[in-house]
């Protein structure tokens, strides 16, 4: 029996509700509206359960879809106009994932997926999440670090590229973006110009 078309008791217990309503604990088949947080983590999902998620379109701020088997582009999440935090850790998303336009998003975690082409992915994030402040994409091929055998030089280049392309970022992975780092990132890619930046971006392509 598929687990992505119903809300189980365990799943209901992971949902944080801030509705101001005074009511008892809902049963497993009772739909609760007005949720700000919703988690579908560790459900082995291969499809996003839009039927449940979109019922919370007027209030949902945090959506956790981590530790599943998802790879489809989350297009219908564009209906969640208040969504601020999207957690997609440990799925099967690749560099060509297409996000909906969501100016409400300020935080996205997409650690440990299958992102290998940094320029393509970063451009998608920059265009679709214009107000993003926190991005975490550790343990992806496109994000070299000590997690996946990347060198210090590769790690620095990776951070400078992402920071230069997404000027709204305040935190990248687990590290705050410092003013000096932001200035250096801008200087690096301005100095190299279009041709130089293109050549450097090839280092991230596979």
Record keyword descriptors for this entry.
206 residues; alpha/beta; 7 strands
Task: Explain the overall architecture.
The protein is of the alpha/beta class and 206 residues long. It is built from five helices and seven strands, in the order H-E-H-E-E-E-H-E-H-E-E-H. The protein has a seven-stranded mixed sheet with strand order 1-2-3-4-5-6-7. Strand 6 and strand 7 form a beta hairpin. The chain starts with 8 loop residues before the first helix and ends in a 5-residue tail after the last helix.
**Distance, first to last CA:** 38 Å
| Arithmetic mean of pLDDT | 83
State which percent range the strand residues make up: 5-15%
Q: Report the radius of gyration as a whole number of Å.
A: 19 Å
Gross morphology is: globular
* Fraction of helical residues: 25-40%
> SSE order, as H and E?
HEHEEEHEHEEH
Number of strands: 7
- Tally of helical segments: 5
Low-confidence stretches: 1-29, 193-206
Largest beta-sheet characterization: 7 strands, mixed
Computed structural class:
alpha/beta
- Placed side by side, the strands forming the largest sheet appear as 1-2-3-4-5-6-7
